[in-house]
Amino acid sequence: MRVFNEECFVLRTVPIKESSLVVDVFTRNYGRYSLMAKGARRQKSEFRGSIRPFQLLLVGWSGRGEVPTMTSLANKFNLGDVAGRQIYCSYYLNELLIRFVRQAIPYPELFDIYLETLKQLTVPDNEFSTLRVFEKNLLKYQGYELNLSTEVDGNTPIDTDKLYLYDFEAGPVCVAQPSENSVSGSTLIAIANERFDSVEIRRESQLFLRRAIGYFSDSKADRSREVFRQTIRADC
Question: For burial by CB atoms within 10 Å, which of 37, 68, 110, 117 has the most?
Answer without folding.
Answer: 37
